[in-house]
Design brief:
The chain has about 210 residues and is an alpha/beta fold. It has helices at about 5-10, 20-35, 50-60, 85-90, 100-115, 145-150, 170-175, and strands at about 70-75, 95, 120, 135-140, 155-165, 180-190, 195-205. The chain has one domain (about 5-205): Vaccinia Virus protein VP39 (Rossmann fold, 3-Layer(aba) Sandwich), CATH 3.40.50. The model has no long low-confidence stretch (mean pLDDT about 95).
Length: about 210
């Protein structure tokens, strides 16, 4: 039976899911905690607050997806945040890119147990060869300038990069704007007071023609 606490945590993050989806998320959380005893997936201090710090924090990106988005790419998926969580909530197929083979093993087992619609790529992001997607996500992966550099080839011309950032979001954005031109939307996080979700589109390198122009 799904936990009322789990559902309430997601609701506070602005996400409403079916009973079936909540059960799958709880199976995923239980598996993560079991694996975390031997594989460093999340900080041990975070285990007691896994739903707020990681699952709901990832889930809050779901309402930002366009209804037309039918697949997405998650960079540096780690334990499945946010990509695997979002695949369960949205039903959208996700390409998960993760180089750490222990984390890849966990992602494969989590996908098997939950039936998440994902494909896992056990490579460094820079070496990923994936068809560009309308949405690219990345959480705690890299400073924004580097993230944009590796994400840009994987993002469709009309696509959106969703990048949750902490208290240094504005500093990272200022640095990135010296190298990249883009449309920026800032969305306050529902799970961390000082955090911001950066929603970036129309990305092109400074001094280069905009995408779709000659």
């Amino acid at each position: 039976m799904p936990s009322d606490v789990s559902r309430e945590t997601l609701t506070q993050a602005g996400v409403h899911v079916s009973r079936e989806t909540l059960v799958r998320l709880e199976c995923y959380a239980a598996l993560l905690l079991r694996w975390n005893r031997t594989v460093n997936l999340v900080a041990h201090a975070d285990e007691r607050d896994i739903w707020t710090r990681h699952i709901a924090d990832s889930a809050q990106l779901a309402p930002l997806f366009s209804p037309q988005a039918n697949h997405a790419i998650d960079l540096g998926s780690g334990a499945g945040f946010p990509g695997l969580v979002l695949s369960l909530i949205t039903g959208i197929h996700f390409e998960l890119v993760e180089a750490d083979h222990r984390k890849v093993a966990f992602l494969a087992e989590a996908a098997r147990v939950t039936g998440a619609p994902v494909r896992i790529h056990a490579v460094r992001v820079e070496r990923a060869r994936i068809e560009p997607a309308p949405v690219v996500t990345a959480r705690a992966f890299a400073p924004l300038s580097k993230l944009i550099r590796v994400a840009s080839p994987l993002l469709r011309d009309d696509g959106v990069l969703l990048a949750p950032k902490g208290r240094n979001a504005e500093n990272e954005l200022t640095g990135a704007l010296g190298e990249w031109h883009m449309q920026v939307r800032r969305i306050p996080s529902r799970t961390a007071r000082e955090a911001t979700i950066l929603m970036l589109s129309e990305i092109h390198r400074a001094g280069a023609p905009e995408r779709g122009t000659v």
